[in-house]
User: Fold this.
Amino acid sequence: MTREEAQELVKKHGTQRKAATMAGVSRHTIARALGIEKGGSSHNVKAAISTKLYTSPVVARSVSDFRNTYDLNTIVPKKIAAGFKQLGAGWLYESEFAKAAGLTMKDLGMFRDNYAAHIVVVGDSRRIWAGKKTVAEQMRSMI
Assistant:
């Protein structure tokens, strides 16, 4: 393996370990190709790899990126809306809907009241989530 090939792999995959895994070789093979001495410190890695690999511009993330990643008040409603879109005019039991939407039952339970028009209660405690409000209304009239 040439030094240039090793540099490209590390640049593409971020670390020597990931680059080695993707290339199907040991990490030491990558390190030797980069010219890093055995037992060398991590400071030698930066010296061995061209500084061009580390000078990419830092892109600041916005508050909306943070919100979309961590705020449950944003994430859960988006997942529920995607679940409704998947259902269309169909329906699923609550546990099945939670799995289809990629939510935990706890998260779904926190927002359940906001979507009461889509929910049909069957029997004592089974809940059905309908993809459309009109479908839920039709189902309620049948009970």
